[in-house]
Amino acid sequence: DADVTQTPRNRITKTGKRIMLECSQTKGHDRMYWYRQDPGLGLRLIYYSFDVKDINKGEISDGYSVSRQAQAKFSLSLESAIPNQTALYFCATSDVTDTQYFGPGTRLTVL
Amino acid sequence: RKEVEQDPGPFNVPEGATVAFNCTYSNSASQSFFWYRQDCRKEPKLLMSVYSSGNEDGRFTAQLNRASQYISLLIRDSKLSDSATYLCVVTDPSNTGKLIFGQGTTLQVKP
């Protein structure tokens, strides 16, 4: 079984809809991250959490929110999706060595 | 100036070739350095960490030059399976646990 899982793997939604992307990990790591990846722009950090009570904004947090329900779960919400949020979204976890382990990604399309 | 810069390529090489990728980073205070590999539409995976003394893992050699803020990855005897995008990654010196990703360099190994 994969150590970091993401659901859904693909999602098509309409402008204005609320959508939640979920991430679960079995690695026992405290640190979790959400990134988006766009062609030509690389990976950009949306939010990160170093433990259950710690939530921090990344470089592109506008339009997104997160919830750290447990050490193993970190969800990303788009309150009102817009077309420029169409992207590939990755969840990641890390330990104190800074090595990050990524989930398989969620491909989101906002029409 | 981007914090981590890479030549996006693509690099098209024949099987068996030696290919080198370069990367520069802007903040001299960055402490840890990595190369990640990302296959098309898949998640990034750690290829290797990069140490000041240089390090080798089979056909892959990574070098770090702190004075020039320059990181390299050398792949010898290229295989078809090496075709992927290679991401240069450094730690954010202002926040332990955060990584800064380059855009990636695409390698295509041809038969």
Please describe what this structure looks like.
The complex is a heterodimer of chains A (111) and B (111). Chain A has no helices and 11 strands. Chain A has strands spanning 4-7, 10-13, 19-25, 31-38, 42-51, 54-57, 64-70, 73-78, 87-94, 100-102, 106-110. In chain A, strands 2, 4, 5, 6, 9, 10 and 11 form a 7-stranded mixed sheet that branches. Chain A has a 4-stranded antiparallel sheet with strand order 1-3-8-7, with no helix packed on it. In chain A, a hairpin with a 3-residue loop joins strand 4 and strand 5 (42-51). The radius of gyration of chain A is 13 Å and the shape is globular. The model of chain A has no long low-confidence stretch (mean pLDDT 94). Chain B has no helices and 11 strands. In chain B, strand 9 (84-91) and strand 10 form a beta hairpin. Chain B is globular, with a radius of gyration of 13 Å. The model of chain B has no long low-confidence stretch (mean pLDDT 93). The A-B interface holds A 31, 40-43, 45, 48, 50, 88, 90, 94, 98-105, 107 and B 8, 32, 34, 41-46, 49, 87, 91, 96-99, 101-104.
